[in-house]
Amino acid sequence: MRNQSARFCSATTGPWAYSILDATLAATLRHHDHVIGCLRQENFSIEQAAHTFATLDSYIYGFVLQEISLPFNTADHGADMFAEILSNTADDYPHLTEMATEYTARLEYDFADEFEWGLSLILDAIARRHT
After folding, report:
1. Any idea what the Cα angle at residue 81 is, between residues 75 and 87, rounded to 5°?
2. What is the pLDDT of residue 75?
3. For residue 56, what are the contacts with CB-CB under 8 A and spacing of at least 6?
4. How high is the pLDDT of residue 87?
5. pTM for the structure as a whole
6. CA angle, 57 as apex, 130 and 66 as ends, to 5°?
7. Which helix (H) or strand (E) segment is 5 a member of?
């Protein structure tokens, strides 16, 4: 697959693109190795380190993908969008309507703040399993 990616980069953007792909891969591998090393230094077994790394990486990557895919800017809270969508479908989605109207529609709500809450939840669970 990496060879296919390299061929695609060379064919579509020039041979210099492969060096960027390779540098990005090297940086990613260094980062992964460092995180796993930190976990091992904290006496995580290799299995615990693998599970912990996969969980954290998936959460962080997934959150970023979800945040950039939102159909609204988190600064404007999407309240207008939610109100419009749910005005016709509130009976079909009562729990989503409740969350949107009683929690996310508040002026102080910012989706980005959910990252810290979720990360804390994951870190607490990892700490309980590690001890």
Report:
1. 145
2. 59
3. 35, 122
4. 79
5. 0.70
6. 130
7. helix 2-13
Report CA-CA distances (Å) from 84 to 89, 96, 97, 127: 9, 13, 11, 42
Q: Which of 110, 116, 102 is nearest to 78 (CA)?
A: 110
Write out residues in the chain with pLDDT < 70, as ranges: 1-23, 73-79, 107
Kindly state the DSSP code that residue 75 receives in the 8-state scheme. Answer: G
Contact between residue 25 and residue 3 where contact means Cβ atoms under 8 Å apart? no
CA nearest to 72, candidates 32, 109, 28, 26? 109
d(CA 129, CA 131): 6
Helices (H), 14-112: 16-41, 46-69, 79-89, 94-99
Residues 6+ apart with CB under 8 A from 40: 46, 49
